Structure formats: structure tokens, C-alpha cells
Amino acid sequence: MGISKHVNQVIEKHRYEIINDIPVEDILFDLRAKQILSDEEVDILRDCRSNKEKANKLIIILKRRGDEDFNQFCYILQNHGAEYIQNIGLQLKKEAEEDPDVLVMPTVDLRDVPPTPTSHYIVRTDFIAVISSKLKEIDETGGRILVHGMAGSGKTIAVSQAIRHTAEVDRCFETGGVYWVKIGDISEDKLFSKLKGLCIKLGIEWKQVPQDLEEIESYLSLYLENNYETSMALFVFDDVWRESYYPYLKFAKKSIITSRFIYPDNELDHYCIPASDRFTDDEAVQLLAKYRRAEDVKNLQENPYVIRAIKSCGGLPLAIALIGGLRLNSDKQWIDAVAVIERKGNRNRLANYEFNLYGTFSLSIQQLDDEARRLFLLLGVFKKVAIPTNSIMALWRCDRITAESLLEELSSKSLLKLIESDSSDPTNRLYCVLHDLMVDYLRISPSPQESNQSYWRHLNHSLIQGYALQCKRDWHLYLDDGYYFQHLVHHAIQAADDQFLREIMSNYRWMIEKLKIVELFNLREDLQDYISYLKINRQDATKSEELLRLLHRYESYLDTDNGDFIQFLLYCAKKDSSILKEARKLACDQIKCNRSRRWMITGYPDDDTDQSLWKASKIMGKSWEDVVPSCSNPAYGNLKFSYTKNNGKSDCTIMVKDYETFKTACSLSIGEAYIHEVRISADGRLIAYATVRACSYILVEKKQNKKWEIYNMDIHERVPFINCAGVKTPTLECRWLQFCPVISQNPVLLTIAVNKKDIQLWNIKEYGIEETEKLNSCWNCLEGFEFTSNGESLSFWWSSNKRLQSTKSWINECQMEIWNVEKLYCEKTFLLPEFIDHVDDRYTVATASNYDYQLKRIKYSNQTQSACFVIYGKVLGLLTQEGRDSKTCSFLEGFTDFFYPIYISDKPISNVIVSDDQQLLVIPKSHENDLTLIKFVNGHAKSYINLRCSYSSHNLRFMPGSYHLFDYNKHGTQCLYQYSLDVYLKLDHKFENYPTFPLWIVVVESTIWRNIQARPLTDNVVNADKDSQEIIIDSSASFINSIPVVAQLTENRTKGIKKLKIYRNESLDLSIDYKLDQEYQNCYLYSETDSVILTRCTNKHPPNRIFGIVQFNSVLGSISQKGQFKYTLWEESPADIVTWKSRYRKEDNVYMFIFYIKKGENRDRWLIMMVKNSQEHKIADIGDDMYLYQSIKIIYCDEYYLITRQKIKESADCVVKWYKLEDTVNNCVLLKSHIYKEDDGIVCKIILPTQKSSSKNLNVSLSSRSLDMMKKQWGEKIANIFVAYCNEEANKECFLFERNEETTVFSHTGQLLGKSHGDIIKQFYLDAKIYRVESLFTKKYFAVFEELSGKIQFYDNVSLQLIHTIQSPYIQAWNVTGNLEQSMFICQGRTGKYSIIKQISETMNG
């Protein structure tokens, strides 16, 4: 098999276009649906890191296929949404068709239609002809066929053959293809699952979760009525047993059913074709002859015992095939066979058969020799899937030659079928398939003394033992055969073998290998099944629950690209947990074996984040330019999220993923565009997105008008907007677009026009988005709008505020309208003040322009009862509507009586998120990590909790119809966090018709809700718990004598206790807990001395500012206070003094302190104080009276030099200054000062000394951004490096540090822009930072950290290649300090808490 030479030439001719222009991710689903790719090949392509790599591998696969598959590939390209992709498809097809041998006709999609055997099979021409005739008939007119007959009568093979014939020869079912569904003897629950699986294949979602088979059948019927192409498909339901199931299969307009039974009602609405339960004598003889020499046919026809055997088994094809496999010769053999078949009363006799079919099975099996019989009986252990030879070898404990030889023998006796894998399969596997009836027979205990349950456990135990012997109980060493890793845990549970289960489920190496083959979701399913097993058997499941909880909660930290499961455990497992200990041991073993690099956390911070509610986290996006994800409504199927990947870049893509499995449902390539927003419809079928054709997010403003497009994921096409005149347009320019959260019979979406006044509803149709009559036009611009959660109503509001020039007064009024979506009329109007005052604990309507609070947000809900939550500045309240039933409800009078304050904050409240049933409110704090959750019952706030997160960027929403809260960290990790709150609410109300995901049944820690004693709730009450806890005032960290040391100043404000705490060693053990007698503001550690310095700045003796220092020695031993000293900093009274930085110079034992002084509105200055021997000191003002400064930045500071950049106030100028730090006599000397225009920018080159003590080697030079000027001053190499990083508008000011052949470039804000070593240049983006400039010039590698995401990345110092990324929930990399060897790092979080990471060495004890 393979493509023709001509098509190969076409591919090679257009290889460049295929690799560079075709977005492979977009067409993977179509390639799989057309059976061009297998599931495994789809996974291989998805694992590729770039589109070019995917395209190259796709070309290799295509060349292994036939010309017909290449034609299908062209067909898929021609139907792509992008015109240039369509053109590529047309060109490829045109050139391929130039060869007359190329088949250009598209094939019919035969989804899951089983193959027909090539041996030991006769074509029942008449039977197949009857089926084919009716298939051609229903292809034209529709209808239902029932092929009935006893099991083994050849129904499935005949129907498969007839379908293939009519599809390939007569071109039937081209429009919709064929869907094959195996039913069998299953329960209603199983049938429900199978029909749900069919819905997923068809892309069907539902309005609400179907509770029974009637509902799911109605959804299928409705979908097919509205989807012409799919309705033309043929649906095959194979082996239907129960009469009651037929009504649930009526949704198909064209269907064929196979069944062992026929019921009276079947003939009323099916064309019934009997399967000839028996072969004719001639057909039976033909099949028997397949097992013999050609000259034996006549002897068979004339032998009366043969004819009697045929009639005894009813001519059943399966039985005839088994008898043929016996190869009976003598009359005695035939007589004995007949006796077995005709024997009555067998205890395992199969129902609905007049003869003993199981006896026929037994007869065939008994003809095997003892060993072959024993081995064959074991095959019943496997699932009813294709079984790979490797697993059979493990079960039989034999080599490949022996296994394949016996399988060939069993196949020749028709006991099983052998299937060779596709030639493109790199493993070249051989599979065997057993008939369902045979599997059922093999699972029956052969001994009356042993129950079937016991026998079943024995079978599974044998398989597990076989696997164990083959891999020597190193479960991870077994080679993937497509079955072992997928089903090992299932068989171990069925075997009820606790020892094997413990070994497997505690073997992290096995989990590592499994994750290379299957999705993380599959590993979680194994864990969940194992936990259920343990609980049923009353065993401890704590460890497995912990691992499952970890896989849910920290999924976003698992790097699925490299599958480094051990490193994931090292970073995410709890301190001192058994999981962490095992991971450390494995890491040590790996390092010894392959010298790989591993890191671990040795010092953990005290975690104050509330992880009891945190359930899951998933990465959705690549950078902070990606949009906030949008979710579907789980009432209509699996929960899906839509989001962007690489927004604003050339490979910008919209992704849609199933939340539970995180499998891709859609990948839509947008190209070079910036996407403002993405929306997904409630049923997950449509995605709407607004784009701006710009390459940089800087060019995009929120107020820009947005061009919206809508894409239908079912048909893989963009859907047009259709106005009232019938004119179609591919895009719609409007300000906002929102889908209705509930799908009704007439689904709708809402748009707000560019003028922010016109509101428009649109009907969602299969052929387009149809405009309805305009809903409303407002006098003023809309301030807010949204659908209510039940989708029945729409709320929007605007301000009527208007100053009256004549009276110099205003109209203090806002109007909100509630509209019925279905009938398009205004249900209710609210009038409320835009501005309010707070007087004597009462909230009143403001009457003058000097108001207290302004209306910022309205949240209207009518799920259970009407509720209107409003935010006025710092106040969240509820407008009660008791006694106000009129259509217009005014709160302009008597506002105080109807406004119920719920929460009062110290800062403006930006938003409130309300659960659908109004029982839970979530209030985010601006730029803070905290979320306040309020339980709201019967119109009153009852209790609250404060949820502390590890990030401060909040984009919140509840999952529709639940208490599951999603929070997207856009500006940091691009991670979607899920918090499950329903466990703690304990409310009487329960959401109905919403699914409960297995993801959320993990046992978690308890969280205590606090009753609200006094109303309203305030920040003071919420923060009272914080005040009673010990808070960190300041902290410092350093390596002293290679030992990590952390110093913290802490205070308990409630008790008034102030302490100095010293933590030492890699585990950050608390070694010193020293109570202080007065308050200090800063603490400092230095690597060159074992002292800790505490400082305080007071204003007790105005106008002087007193700077106090206390020095403690021997932080590595028993700490002792050396002395306490005071210095006068300033003889005027400045507004504020902040200690900015401190350094210690060992050479002359000098402590340096740099102060930032804000003297007034327009006077910012600097001070440097140098202290020697505590008594000798010098203070220098490094500002001057010529200029007033703002935005002062330290560009570089060491023990000898200081370089600053500051902006000159009331001017467009900036200045760079270079100081030499002398001693306590001369203090500091200004070496250079350069003034420049901020808009023009500046480039500054700083040559660092090659050795730390070589202070005279530091050199600073400056230039304009002119390339010629830089070349003239520094040479072409340095000039080109500057040009590479200074061409962006945001990077007009660049500072280059050079040491030997290494250079590093920063912006004036401290952002790392790039680094070079020799001719190699590495560019960095966004918030890349380093802890000090010197750390980039190392012998091995350098560390870069990202403040927002918390990642620490290690790069090789010579090749500049990324070596390792560290990201952990226990590490907040706001600042990072490394030791000289860079084998250990102290990581500081924003709150002053620390953690330590250390590289694992092979000599360490795991």
C-alpha cells in the first residue's frame, strides 16, 4: 500500500506550501473522521511542538496511504474555512487528477463498520443482495430495516458486506455516511451511555442533562430534523436484544438493525429480513469445504452424518464454522459431534437456541490438545476489544513464535479471528478478536465446584501474574501494546489482588510511562476506580486520594510536553508526604542512571492560601494577551471552554476544550490577528470572536469597535449574519455580543451597537444569525447589560445624569429595564439614584455634586426570586422590592428604606459574582489575593469566609447551575482555577438537571463559615482574623558561608508583640525567635557578614528625621546584639523617607543605605548614608536643586558604583547619573550625568569589572539610538545587539551590561530584554527578571524568573538554551537569590515568605 509515484511527485512539489501554510491542528478531526488517521496518529501529531513538525509527519503518513486517502485530504482542504487553504486543496487535487489512475471520487464515511473476514467465509450472495436492495431503497426514501436471526447466523458480516457494497459500488449514503453502533445484551444505563456517545460523535449537545432514554431520543430526533446532512446518514444498531429499546432508536430516518429476535411490533415499522438462521445444506458444505481439500466437497455432500450435523446445529454459520474447524474425517467423529450438539440439559445451555451452541463451543475446544485448550480458555479474561499478541504472550507465558503459531491454529478452527495492524503502524502488531458469544462462554467456570465470580477473579489474577512475570514486576518496563497500560488497573481490581494493586498504584514509574501513552484523565480514572475498590473493601485510601487530589488541583503545573511526572511531584506534593519521599527517591535513581537534572523544594513557606476549596487548575492560554476563557452550559452536555492561544501572533488560534478530559473539541486558526473576546454558546456548538487586524496588543484599545465572527463547530464553517433585508455579511461590527445562557426552541444572541445605545436580538439558525426587530434604543450610552441566568430576561441600564445649565443642578437618576427575551417586551423598569450619600449610618439620595458614592454595577437575578444587587463605590447592597409590584419601580424616594447594605469595603468594590440561585456572593478585592464569600439566604447575609488565593488577578464566574467557581489568572499563569463551594454551603436548595462531574467528588479539608454578627459586613470584620495573626513587616535573605539564611521582622498587632526571626539551613528551620522592645521597619542580611541589621526611621523630634540601626551578630550561631545607634537624616520635614536599598562592603567594613525621599508634591530626592564601625558615618544628598525628579530608578548598584535614571518633573527630559561610592569621608562622587529626551530614548553600555574587587574597571558610555552613532562608538556587534532590543516603542531606553564576551540588555524598568554569548543571542519577553545583574554572568547557567507567572527558568550560560523550568504552588518568585554554585536558590514571595529549591545530586539520599 502507498501513494502512486505521480501523487508523490505532487506532494514533493508542494511540500513547502503544505508545511508552512496548512494549519494541521485545524484538520485533525476531519482526517480522523475520514479514517485517514488513527487515534494514535492523531495523538502523535498533537504531541509535535510546531506546525511544521506536524505537517512533516502528516506527509510521511499520507505517503503510506493510498491515492484515495490523498484525494480525501484534498477534499478536506477544499472545505476549510480559509480561502487560501481551499486554493491549496484545489491545486493539489487538480494536479493529482492529471494522472488517470488517481481516484478522485470521495469515499463514503463508514464509521466503525467492522471488516469482513478474508478466509473461512462464504459470500451469501442472495442474502446480501436482499439487504443491498433495501439499503439502496432507504437511501432514496428513508426507512428502517431489521435483519433478524439467531446469534452466529452471520447477520453482522452480511450487513457489513452489504453496506460496503452499496457504498462503494452504488455510492449510497454519500451525504451523511454510516454510523455503526454495537448494542448487545445491555442494561438501560448502558444503552443510555451508548446513545450519549453517539451524540458526542454527531456533535449534539442538549438543553438540559437528559434523565432517561426518552429525553435523549428526543434530542437526537430534534437534531436530525435540523441537520440535513447528518439526517441522510445510515445508522446501524447491531445486536439489539430487548423489544423495549426499539422506540429509542426511531430518531434515525435511515437505519438497519440486527437482532436475534423479532417482535410483533417490529413488522409494523421495519422491513424485516430474516437472516436465514441456518445455512442451506449447500452453503454449509461450502463453508465446511473451506477447511478441507477441494476434492472433499463431493464426499461432504454425500455423507449423511455431515448433513445430519448441519441440520442438528440449525445450519448456524458460527456453529458450522466451528465444526469446519474440527476437520472431522471418519463417520465416528461425525456421529460423536452430532451427539454433543443434540445433547439436552447442559447447565450452560444458551437461551433461545434449540440446539446446544455452547456444546458446539465445547466440542471445538475439546478437540484442542490439553495445553492449547488450557491457553484458549484463558482468553476470556480480556475485554471485548482487539487483543494484542503481546498481552496474550503475557497471559500464556510464552514467546511470540509460540503465541502466533497457536493463534493461527485457533483461527484456522474459527475459534477466533486474527487481524493484522495497518502497515503504517510502526509496531506492526497482530491482534485477535473473539466473538461476543465465545467470550461469554469462556467466562463461565468450567468446574461446577467453582463459581463464575471466583473463576473470573482467577482469570484476571492469571493475566496480572503473566504481566508481572514478563516485566519482572517492574510494571513500568512493559512495552506499550495498546492494551496493557490502558487496562492493567481494571484487571488488577477484577482480580481483587491487593498486593498487585498496591504495587501498581504506588509505582510512579508506571504512571510516568502511562502518561506518555494516554491522557491524564485516564490516569485519574484509574485512581478513582482504585479508591472506590479500597473503600468497598474498607481499606485506607488516603494516599491515593491525596495523589488524585494533587492531579486535579495542580494539573496546570504538569508539563505535558515532556511528561516529567517525577518533577511535577517534587514541586507539588505536600511537605513530608509519602508521595514526596517516593518522588525524591526516584529522582535520585534517575540522576544516577542518566545524569538528568532534578530540583526539589527543601524549605517550604507557611502557606496561608485556602486550598480546601481549590479543586482543579488548567492552563488556558500562552500569555497575558490571551483572552479570558468563556464556558458553555453543562446542562447541554459536557462543559466546554473557549479561549485563545498565542493571541496577537501569526499563529493565533481559538481553542475549545472539554473541561473534564481537556481534549480538544475545536482548534480554529485565525492567523495574524488580535482577538478582543471569545464567546461560546450555551450548548457549546458556536463560538463568537471579535478580532482586530493588528500584530501588537499595544495597538488595541478596549473602546475600539469589534468585528465579530461566528463559527459553527458542527459543520466547521463560519456562519453569516443576515439582516432584515436578507443581506448576508461574514462579520458584524458592534461593541458587545453575548449568547443567551439557556437554549430555548428559538436560541438567540444579543448585540450592543457601536453607539452603545442600540440593543439588538438575533435568532440563531443553522444557515445563519438572523436579525430580529431592534429591541430598544437608549437615550444615553449603556453602562451594563446581561441575560439573567435562566435566559428568560435581559437587563440593561444607563445613566440619566444631566447637568441643567440654568439651575446648575442635575438629574441624579439611572434607569434599568428588564425585558422578556421570548416575547420582546419590557417587564419592569427600575429608577434608582446614580449618586448616594452616607450620613449617620444611613444611605440617602445625593442632592449635590459632592456625593459620597457613585453607582458602578447592577446585578439583576430572577432564578428563584427577583433580586437586584448594586455596587455604590465601596458599598455592596441589595435593593429590596417588597410591596413594589408595579411595572415601574422607583427608588428615588425612600431609598434608605429599600437599600440593604451587605458589605462595606475600605476600597472601591469592582464586581460581585452571584450564583444562579442567589445564595452565594463572591466579592473580589482590587489588586489583592483575597476573595470574600458571603452566604445569602432569604434576602439576608448569614455568614462569610475569606478565601485567600496565591494570585491577585481575578476573572470570576460560576459554572452555570452550580456552586463551582472558576477564576482565571489572566496576567500571571494563564490558568483557570476551580473552587468547589457546594461542599461547604450545606444549603437546602439543590440545583437540578445539572451534572456532577467525577472531578468534584474528592474528599477535601474543612472550611469554617463565620456568622455575620453585625450587619453590614465590613473589611474591619473580615480582616480581624489577619490582625490576630502574625504578619511580616519586612524580610531579607542571603547565603552566609554557603548556608541559606532568612530574617523576618514580624508583628502581632492584636497582642503588640514584635519579633526578629531567623531561619537557617536548606529546610528553613526556625533557629532564632527574638522578641524586640521597639518597632523596626526594615531588616537586612549580607552574604559577606553574619550580622543582621534592623533599621527604623522616626519623626519623634521634628523637624529632624532620626534613622536608627541595631546590629545583631552571629546569625549562624547564638545571636547577640552588638549595639544600637541613631543618626539624623534630615533637618527638614519631608513627606516620607523609604529605605530603598542596602549593601555591605567587606573591604572597608562599610554599610551603605540608600533612601528615597519624597519632600513634597514636586520634590523627589535621594540620600546615601555610609556607616563604618557604627560610629563613623557620612550622609550625602545625591539630588540637586537644579531639577525636581520623579520616577527614580536604580539601574545598577554594587559596593562601589551606583547608576540611576530619573525623569525631570514638568519636562520631557530624563537624566542618567553615574556615581562612585567612596567611603565615610568622601561618600560619593558624580562621575557622569547625561540628559536626554524621553521620547528619543537612550542606549547605555556598562562594562562590568571582570572581578568583584576590580572596581576601576567599570565603565559607562551613552549614545543616541542612531545605528551609525552606536557603530562608531561601540562597533557593529554591540550596535546590532542594541538594535535587536531597542526597536520597540516600549523599549526606547536600554542598558547593556558587558563582561568579556557576554552581554545582557535591560529596559529602564528592569525587564530583561536579551542576553548574548559570543554570536548567540537570546531574546526575552514580558516580565522576565533576574535577582541581580551579576547573576547573569556565571560559569554554568543563569536563572530568570517571571513575577506574574511565578516561573523560574534556567538557561545554559553558553548555549543560552532553556534547561529547566521551575513552577510550584509553594514557590512565589517575586525575588530570587542563588548561591555561588547556583545549586540552591532562596525564593521570596510578595508577602515576605520564603522557600528554597535545591538541585538534587546523585549522592543525595532520596
From TrEMBL:
<dbReference type="Pfam" id="PF17908">
    <property type="entry name" value="APAF1_C"/>
</dbReference>
<dbReference type="InterPro" id="IPR001315">
    <property type="entry name" value="CARD"/>
</dbReference>
<dbReference type="InterPro" id="IPR041452">
    <property type="entry name" value="APAF1_C"/>
</dbReference>
<dbReference type="Pfam" id="PF00619">
    <property type="entry name" value="CARD"/>
</dbReference>
<feature type="domain" description="CARD">
    <location>
        <begin position="3"/>
        <end position="92"/>
    </location>
</feature>
<dbReference type="InterPro" id="IPR011029">
    <property type="entry name" value="DEATH-like_dom_sf"/>
</dbReference>
<dbReference type="GO" id="GO:0005829">
    <property type="term" value="C:cytosol"/>
</dbReference>
<dbReference type="GO" id="GO:0006915">
    <property type="term" value="P:apoptotic process"/>
</dbReference>
<dbReference type="Pfam" id="PF00931">
    <property type="entry name" value="NB-ARC"/>
</dbReference>
<keyword id="KW-0853">WD repeat</keyword>
<dbReference type="InterPro" id="IPR042197">
    <property type="entry name" value="Apaf_helical"/>
</dbReference>
<dbReference type="GO" id="GO:0043531">
    <property type="term" value="F:ADP binding"/>
</dbReference>
<dbReference type="InterPro" id="IPR036388">
    <property type="entry name" value="WH-like_DNA-bd_sf"/>
</dbReference>
<dbReference type="InterPro" id="IPR027417">
    <property type="entry name" value="P-loop_NTPase"/>
</dbReference>
<keyword id="KW-0053">Apoptosis</keyword>
<dbReference type="GO" id="GO:0042981">
    <property type="term" value="P:regulation of apoptotic process"/>
</dbReference>
<dbReference type="InterPro" id="IPR002182">
    <property type="entry name" value="NB-ARC"/>
</dbReference>
<keyword id="KW-0677">Repeat</keyword>
<protein>
    <recommendedName>
        <fullName>CARD domain-containing protein</fullName>
    </recommendedName>
</protein>
